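Next up, a specimen:

>
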Amino acid sequence: MSKRLFITGGTGYLGGALLRLAAGRGYTLGASYLSQQPPGVPGIAWARLDIRDPQAVHEVLQSFRPDVVIHTAFVQYEPDLMAITAEGSGHVAQAAAELGARLIHMSSDVIFDGERAEPYTEAEPPAPISAYGEAKAAAERLVAAAYPGAAIIRTSLIYGFEPLDRQTRFALEIADGQRGDRLFSDEYRCPIFVDDLAAALLELAEIDYAGVLHVAGAERVSRYEMGTLLARALGYDPARIQAGRSADLPVRRPRNCALNIGRASALLHTRLRGLRELLKDRAQIEGNLA
């Protein structure tokens, strides 16, 4: 009998990648959406769900009866940031715990203030300096309290090509002259290819890991480096992308959110490739197909 996997935020970027990958692995699939209508893909039990409503969360999960829940649903901005991203995560954790379903909760590297010189380990306490970081840190606390057996996965910028992610599209619009924005040369992350992250999460769905785990790309790059590398790989002129400094903004932002992925790399078979490694692999594949 196949495992039953439910993904919140199934119409989001990561949710869509998870569904595509899981479809070929024998799972019985369910997923939720809120405002973005789901695609007409057969074999997925879709449910419209507002995770601000704990009773609705309980009813949807009780109806599907998942073995595993991967919680990707969130919003990044107000007005419902805390209600959805933080409190909604607590509702999902409570419902999953009541059902005895394995829970994988998605968190973020921006729960840190970005002031460390070295990559952050799982042992570092959250110290958010943005509203979104505060919401994600609150979500971690609520999930851990409601479901101590949950896996809490901190990740970084997620990118991909089919379709393009928001970050890559933004960089290409700058390179194409459609935007006059600059990309920060002093703000560092560990971007991860969406298919690598989805594969790692499905691997985690099959094991009993509980607690915080950092799952990100193996290479630290600035937002400026990321944009220029992706622009060059996709046939755009990276010289048209100008660098800016996060430190020059009036609003404080976390500047070095690099994550130490040693624990995940030892635990998982999935390769957590850095950006340059991924682009090299992609170029080799395209060269072989040419």
Notes: The radius of gyration is 19 Å. Residues 4-158+192-214 form a domain with the Rossmann fold fold (CATH 3.40.50.720).
